[in-house]
Predict the 3D structure of the following.
Amino acid sequence: SEIMHTHMRQIYEGLSTEDGTMKPEQSLIFCTREGDPHDFGLMMAAIACRYRGYKTQYIGKNLPAESLIEATEKIKPRAIVIGVSALPE
């Protein structure tokens, strides 16, 4: 799975948009919550959104809430996409 994650990250970072234009007003943050290390689906969503021209920031998996708040205040995204592999008990 680590090899796949590495390849997906390379695709994400080297990806050009479908039509060559970026929509900076459509900024999105992607992450998983603290305790959730599963991000394949989230990474695929980030790739799809970046390809469609959205300004995406993949800030990681297993992210503490404080870090998400800090990133949100700095980036000021239009939306936050949080991947969830299981709901907390």
Remarks:
- The longest strand covers residues 23-33.
- DSSP finds three helices and three strands in the chain.
- The two ends are 26 Å apart (CA to CA).
